[in-house]
Specification:
Elements lengths: L3 E6 L3 E6 L13 E6 L3 E3 L2 E3 L6 H15 L8 E3 L19 E5 L2 E2 L4 E6 L2 H10 L1 E2 L2 E2 L9 E7 L2 E2 L8 E2 L2 H8 L1 H24 L2 E12 L6 E4 L8 E5 L15 H7 L19 H19 L7
Antiparallel strand pairs: 1-2, 2-3, 3-7, 4-5, 6-7, 8-15, 9-12, 9-15, 10-11, 13-14, 15-16, 15-17
Length: 306
């Protein structure tokens, strides 16, 4: 893309640095990167095909909306979403308009900051085995989908593509980043969750849990919210009117993808190590509809691509 050089691809996002020679040796916005959300979809640590149309636009536009709702709690990494007016001006190329953000470069903390207000997923598995989640004891008798007495901070180590994130106790975060930074990450994560949970609940959506990433600004030293925030890829959103503890909850995410992959229809052996088959058209379309519904329910507006 004019003005940018590709440096990294994750499961969903692609990262670009300024192509400084084409920009005359410096970027007009400073030390920035271009973060592009693709339509790729992953499940069970595999990137699947085909992608989900408009998924990257939903992830970017919903993140931008949430960044605004949280701006008084924590600064974020977004610098600009302005689309290029000239081939080499260093702004967002038109080809990725709506799915890309120019962001300040951060020194990221090596930890996934997870807040849980409801028990499900890997937290439920830990609870069933020990009565705890990342060393935090929970009351007896909780089931899949139970609301917790209060939200908890359950961090995880970051995993490479194809590997699992590993839930760790708070003490492991202290060992990695120091007590002051660990406490800041915990407090910010729980504050973001509390704000977002209230906003979602007002819109008929349960925010069961969410994963956040933070970094420090290398110039100012302030802690900054980065990556994506409160999207169906990083959070579990459930329709409030269908919440029923004791079973798996319907969700606004890639549930249809997971369900199909683990059904006899896919013919895929998750434990076999082989690549998953291509997703059927109806699974792709139903998944797209869930992403769009999540965006529209939360923001109260149809998806905008600019």
């Amino acid at each position: 893309m004019p003005g940018w050089r590709h440096v990294y691809s994750g499961k969903v996002r692609d990262l670009y640095e300024p192509d400084l020679p084409s920009l005359g040796g410096a970027h007009p916005l400073g030390d920035v990167v271009l973060v592009v959300a693709s339509d790729r979809v992953s499940a069970y640590d595999h990137v699947l095909a085909p992608g989900i149309p408009d998924k990257g636009v939903v992830l970017t536009q919903l993140s931008l909306w949430w960044f605004e709702q949280l701006s008084d709690l924590v600064p974020n990494h977004v610098v600009s979403t302005q689309v290029s007016a000239a081939p080499f001006d260093g702004l967002v190329p038109d080809v990725v308009a709506g799915r890309a953000m120019i962001c300040r470069r951060l020194e990221m903390f090596p930890v996934e900051c997870v807040a849980r207000g409801y028990l499900t997923g890997s937290g439920l598995a830990e609870y069933r085995a020990s009565g705890e989640v990342t060393g935090i004891p929970l009351p007896d008798g909780l089931v899949d989908g139970s609301r917790l007495p209060e939200p908890i901070f359950t961090p995880a180590t970051k995993a490479e593509i194809g590997e699992h994130d590993e839930n760790v106790p708070f003490s492991a975060v202290v060992e990695r980043v120091g007590e002051a930074a660990a406490s800041t990450l915990r407090d910010l994560t729980l504050a973001v969750y509390a704000r977002a949970e209230e906003i979602a609940r007002e819109r008929g959506v349960v925010l069961a849990d969410t994963k956040l990433e933070f970094g420090t600004d290398p110039v100012t030293g302030e802690v900054v919210l980065g990556d994506e925030v409160l999207t169906p890829d990083s959070s579990r959103f459930w329709p409030a009117d269908q919440w029923q503890p004791g079973r798996a909850q319907p969700s606004f995410d890639k549930q249809f993808v997971r369900d199909w992959l683990t059904s006899p229809s896919s013919g895929w052996d998750r434990a076999g190590g082989g690549e998953p088959p291509a997703l059927p058209a109806d699974v792709v379309l139903r998944t797209r509809d869930r992403y769009l519904e999540a965006y529209e329910r939360l923001t109260g507006a149809p998806l905008s691509r600019r």
